[in-house]
Write a structure and sequence with these properties.
Layout (H helix, E strand, L loop, with lengths): L1 H49 L85 E3 L6 E3 L19 H13 L4 H9 L7 H13 L3 H12 L3 E11 L2 E9 L4 E6 L4 H4 L10 E4 L12 E4 L1 H14 L6 H16 L6 H16 L7 H11 L5 H4 L8 H17 L5 H19 L4 H10 L27
Parallel strand pairs: 3-6, 6-7
Antiparallel strand pairs: 1-2, 3-4, 4-5
Helix pairs in contact: 2-3, 2-13, 2-14, 3-4, 4-13, 5-13, 7-8, 8-9, 9-10
Length: about 475
Amino acid sequence: MAELELLAARLEAKLAAQEKQIARKDEPLIEKTNRIKELEKALEDAHRRSKRQSAPFSKGDPKAEPARSGRKSGEAHDRHGHRSVPTVPPDRELDAPLPACCPHCGGEVEHERDGEQWQVDVPEVRPTTTRFKVGMGRCRSCKRRIQGRHPEQTSDALGAAGSQIGPVLKGWAMLLHYRMGLGFGRTAEVLARFGVKVTAGAICQSSARAVSTDLLPVHRELVRRANRSASITMDETSWRVGGQRKWLWVAANSELTLCGVGDGRGFDQAIEVIGADYEGVLVRDGYVTYNRYDKATHQSCIAHLARRCHEMEAGLPAADRDVPGAAKAILSAALRARDLPEERAAAGVELKDRLDALAVTSVGNDANRLLEHLGKQALYLFTFLSVEGVDATNFRGEQAVRPCAVNRKTWGGNRTWNGTRTHGVITCILAAAAEHGVDTVDYLAARARNPDPRPAVLLGWRPGQPIPVVSSTHSV
């Protein structure tokens, strides 16, 4: 018995020694496995960063032997283009007569025919100064002070505040800064070319004042329409407020665009643009925050997932490309099914089953993360095949973000939260005007001259028409 106990102790000691030895040998393997995961994650992040270049249209270093710029000569030249002749009658006609003698040899010149050249130019821009003679009086009954107002006035201010910038110039200032991306200083320089001296601070203050008075009801009406729309696309990007990193949220469809800046990238900031009770179809990317819109029907962006499959397929060994290749084939088939009206719904069900079967596949490489993501997004990928008018990608959100991103590169964001609010309201109104072919400056000037506090309907308005209003105010 003693010998057996001694033998068992020796075996246990030997087993413990072997386990320690195995653990020491496994440590480098575990370390290498973790390192491989870190490098794979870094590679995927590098692929994604390459799609967000720091300079617009940057494609890396220049080629050693670039192709010759310009169009090819001879028969290889594509269609020739030229500026068409204006269809409106000319405002003036000028003669360019022949010289009295040949400028080369001094010989007599004989007239053969007349040619035509058209030139479209901008006349000299001169500001128009208007002095309003405002009648002032007092009611004989209630003794209250009464003041007259002309339809072209935008304010009742007199005295120290009686000298103002007109609504057309204010509209140009908003267009140049919030749509064209010029800073307030450069906007003031452009207005100076009109012969009007105005400071950058005055432009900023006038824009904020317009948002708090004339444009606020318009914005509320657009927000109400967006929250009741059948489909909306959302996206987000980073922003700066006072030098601190914040987030810009956009929501867009074929009719309008909303824009707002939030303190973070969570659901609490998203519902400041589109409410939590939105019941339409929400087109979005794979960001998990959008999943909290539990009353909405979702459509996840196919382009994002197809691009991820393509990048993963290029980065994996040939033997491990089956999963991303199969996923990409399913997504491509879904995009082709868009053009088959009678087969769309059935194709959506079939492709959903194929994707579910693929998502439960067991693989031992980086495609596991793709399969996990497919399993989470499969329910949201084919809504566009069953619901008419829904986009397959979130391109509307990315297009709505782009003008703001260009402005961010130009003037870096906003200094204050009041500035972000002004930016959001004016950007929303300018985008809606551009989408519907409404002249922005004319609309802003007409709205400034109309003191009606009810929501003004922007969509469908044309210059020269009275601004239609909604019978009752709405708040969101």
